[in-house]
Amino acid sequence: KPAAKVNQLNWLLKSIRSNLLSYRLHFGLSYGDFSPDSPMTRQLLLQSKHTSIKRDNQEKKIIERPTNSPHFSELFREVHQFCRTTASVTNVLSLLASIENNSSEFNFRSQEVNWQCSASSFCCRLSTCYSMYEDI
């Protein structure tokens, strides 16, 4: 998204600078002053400065991923799958309910260990397979 905004702001900046150039040329050819200090030039210069600042801020947000990185859609799918299964609200609440009900010690411990192993292996998979998505 920031890269698209940078493209839009570049286009806007070119348009502003083109207008400024054409105004300066017109004024210079008509009156001999190629660098007029008029409200129009001040407005265009201010608009150009403001647009440049916005573009620079958007450029800082651009993240470039290696070409061999997996598609974001794969990461998205895996995270949502994990959230629907292991980390689902019902699954976590049932684990908490078994803690509160003091169910058999062995049953509770095995559920807890199973859940922790699943969550841990998912985190390991994310850090190995999707390391280039560290900003997400």
Lay out the secondary structure.
Layout: H1 2-31, H2 39-61, H3 72-84, H4 89-100, H5 105-129
Helix pairs in contact: 1-2
For the biggest sheet, the summary is: none
Helix content: over 70%
What is the gyration radius calculated from CA atoms?
A: 29 Å
Structural class: mainly alpha
- Low-confidence residue ranges: none
Descriptive report:
- The chain is mainly α.
- It contains five helices and no strands.
- The radius of gyration is 29 Å and the shape is rod-shaped.
- It has helices at 2-31, 39-61, 72-84, 89-100, 105-129.
- Helix 1 (2-31) runs antiparallel to helix 2 (39-61).
List keywords for this structure.
single chain; 5 helices; mainly alpha; 76% helix; 136 residues
What's the gist of this structure?
Helix content is 76%, strand content 0%.
